[in-house]
């Protein structure tokens, strides 16, 4: 409907209600477009010659026009690029699935290359039968499929001290959502036979960092997967090929990649990654540990600082993601005025437990500035808090578990900035 | 559990029931593995040095070990590689999502390159207001998300004349399943205003073939999407970037790529692609047309001719895919003896309407030959027929809509062949 840009008229018509009124404009506009637009009136190269043959794409990649939709890292955020973070370009994605190629991942000593032939998984500690599994052994156990979000505990971590990073990708992109297939860890633990005194497991990776993490046996026997497929195909190298742990609802650091050992113990190991890191520094200087579950959260992905409004006023699609480590998303509210008033968004597509849920709100933008916020409510009744509500209890110096409400300031010119509202 | 390969004992134990009996073997085996296996006893390179840094993978690709998991084409199947087929490697995939990079696609004059800036979609014919939409216009309409299978009408087409192609990929791989996001076609048609005499739409692509297809207006107003995202990101070039049609449950040829025009008419256009092609030649020489809906079907993806059994007897995971253009899969039965006896498989993960459903059957293989079959039953009560049942009515010379039961002959040595059983 190219006429409305030219005429500067409202596009409300095409959202359904005002069809009759908008009709005349649209028809006139179309006539103009038809006579003036060479893309309509002339035969284009792509309509009169051959394109790529099938053998051009045994394994396809995104078209070059989309080369900006990639993972990005922030150099100063970690000491080294081998202990850094690849942020998902969530501002440019839609739906709920994150393609593996641009899905958030972090590693602590680089992404290692480990073949299926060389792969071994040991289960030892307080078990009746210590075991070593080859990759092939694992493929012979019953499998299950779990779509789950994997979010870094530090996602949004820079927001404790105020709006510091521009870009939805950098602010909230330490998250992905994939359909994982693998063996329930429960089956492997049953095979080894956990002794009555076994109360915790400790999962270790085969990379140099080992990234060892403890979790209660109850979780390990519940919904944890020893996964080898993501979104239907083998795990990518940087996602832990050939085998990673999937720990639905828990912080991403516990989703141990290149999984090499599960130890069963009577208590937690208290490793580096669960004491000096991945604990929550409180206002009074003490730190909370064992805060594994990711509380309900949401973020508007578009418009956002990397996805400004280019089309002017009129119909505007507001979209974002919501998730909860405690179950399903029940509702997402959106505010255009920084939290003064709220309206419910549409939950689009499937709503799955411990997985990303997509929401949309379709508005007729009048072209004035907005303070966009979203607020997730999960099936437990938990309501996503404001950042200030979190700071009251946890202070300003924490790094982890900031699920506070994000604010995007949309200016009249359509540009968007990361801000805080009082 | 590397001991069992060495000892040659049954692996039944590790599937749960025989834990006590299997325990002693497992423990002894583990001890052997621990002292003999350098992968357990020695520190490996990957555990003592850095791997890839984050900037190595702005957009990741599969690891080189998986380079065989790619789309493949069959040279003699079509006249030219610009009118050919990229088959999904379904024998090597799991779960339900097909990654875009290896998802089935066909084109009739090559995959064209069409930018969002150059993109136009025209709606004309029997409408109140002929319209031309830019890509940006489309992004301002309300969106929805639909996970759906896209299956070529000719998938399994070589099977009419008997088991002719080896490989699950080539026999049944003209199918993919992706999470699509886009605008309901209904909203665009409402915007244009369909006149009372408009009963059919005709969808055309911007490529040289145009691949025009008619469909009843009822379907167009039901669940058809004008899609621009697949599995969360922009459509790949070969999947119709920037915009394709998604027609859940209908044959893949109607999912017009590089969508450039929707015409509204009082009758079907009867184009080349719906008369000389994509009609069903019957026994008596007449042809059925308008057979768009893909009936319920299933196929075992592993073991299969490209996925033989390498691990010998004992626990074996049998897995496959089932789908129906008429709704949800209700049940999948698996036979090990060529259809003499059947047992129900597990439906794993979500069961969605008009989308791929994954099934699993875990057996203790005794090492003797098997004739593996699967049979899908959908929510309408429809039961997937045998090939012979189809041939009785449709003869042998058809190309399209062969949803007959597939048979894989598993030999005692684990190799698998495509066969037919009487």
UniProtKB/TrEMBL annotation, chains A, B:
Species name for this entry? Albidovulum aquaemixtae
Q: Under which name does UniProt file this protein?
A: Sulfoxide reductase catalytic subunit YedY
Q: Domain Moybdenum cofactor oxidoreductase dimerisation spans what residues?
A: 288-407
Q: Tell me the GO BP annotations in alphabetical order.
A: sulfur compound metabolic process
Query: Sorted alphabetically, which InterPro entries does this protein's record hold?
Result: Ig_E-set, MoCF_OxRdtse_dimer, Mopterin_OxRdtase_euk, OxRdtase_Mopterin-bd_dom, OxRdtase_Mopterin-bd_sf, Sulfite_DH_SoxC, TAT_signal
User: What keywords sit in the KW lines?
Assistant: Metal-binding, Molybdenum, Oxidoreductase
Q: What is the lineage of its organism?
A: Bacteria, Pseudomonadati, Pseudomonadota, Alphaproteobacteria, Rhodobacterales
Which Gene3D superfamilies does this chain map to? 2.60.40.650, Oxidoreductase, molybdopterin-binding domain
Q: Which PROSITE patterns match?
A: TAT (PS51318)
Instruction: Please indicate which superkingdom the organism of origin belongs to.
Output: Bacteria
Query: Which molecular function GO terms apply here?
Result: heme binding; molybdenum ion binding; molybdopterin cofactor binding; sulfite oxidase activity
Coiled-coil-forming residues are none
**Cofactor dependence:** Mo-molybdopterin
Ranges for domain Oxidoreductase molybdopterin-binding: 114-270
């Amino acid at each position: 409907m190219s006429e409305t840009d030219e005429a500067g008229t409202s596009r409300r018509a095409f959202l359904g209600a005002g069809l009759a009124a908008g009709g005349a404009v649209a028809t006139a506009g179309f006539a103009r477009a038809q006579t003036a637009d060479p893309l309509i009136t002339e035969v284009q190269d792509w309509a009169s010659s051959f394109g790529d043959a099938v053998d051009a794409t045994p394994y396809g990649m995104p078209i070059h026009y989309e080369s900006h939709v990639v993972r990005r890292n922030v150099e100063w955020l970690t000491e080294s690029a081998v202990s850094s973070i690849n942020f998902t370009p969530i501002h440019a994605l839609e739906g709920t699935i994150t393609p593996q190629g641009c899905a958030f991942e972090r590693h602590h000593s680089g992404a290692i290359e480990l073949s299926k032939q060389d792969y071994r998984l040991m289960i030892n500690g307080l078990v009746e039968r210590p075991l070593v599994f080859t990759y092939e052994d694992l493929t012979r156990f019953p499998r299950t499929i779990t779509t789950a979000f994997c979010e870094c505990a530090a996602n949004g971590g820079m927001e404790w001290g105020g709006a510091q990073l521009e870009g939805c990708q950098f602010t909230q992109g330490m998250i992905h959502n994939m359909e994982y297939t693998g063996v329930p860890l429960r089956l492997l633990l049953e095979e080894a036979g956990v002794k009555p005194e076994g109360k915790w497991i400790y999962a270790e990776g085969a990379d140099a960092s080992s990234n060892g993490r403890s979790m209660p046996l109850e979780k390990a026997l519940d919904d944890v997967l020893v996964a080898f497929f993501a979104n239907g195909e083998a795990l990518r190298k940087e996602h832990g090929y050939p085998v990673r742990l999937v720990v639905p609802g828990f912080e991403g650091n516990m989703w141990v990649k290149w999984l090499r050992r599960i130890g069963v113990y009577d208590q937690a190991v208290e490793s580096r990654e669960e004491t000096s890191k991945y604990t929550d520094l409180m206002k009074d200087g003490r730190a909370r540990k064992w805060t594994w579950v990711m509380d309900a959260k949401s973020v508007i992905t578009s418009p956002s600082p990397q996805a400004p409004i280019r089309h002017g006023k009129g119909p505007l699609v507001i979209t974002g993601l919501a998730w909860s480590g405690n179950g399903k998303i029940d509702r997402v509210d959106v505010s255009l005025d920084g939290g003064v008033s709220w309206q419910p968004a549409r939950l689009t597509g499937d709503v799955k437990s411990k997985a990303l849920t997509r929401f949309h709100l379709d508005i007729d933008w009048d072209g004035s500035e907005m303070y966009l916020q979203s607020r997730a409510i999960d099936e437990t009744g938990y309501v996503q808090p404001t950042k200030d509500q979190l700071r009251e209890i946890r202070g300003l110096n924490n790094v982890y578990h900031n699920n506070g409400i994000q604010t995007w300031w949309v200016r009249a010119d359509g540009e968007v900035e990361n801000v805080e509202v009082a």
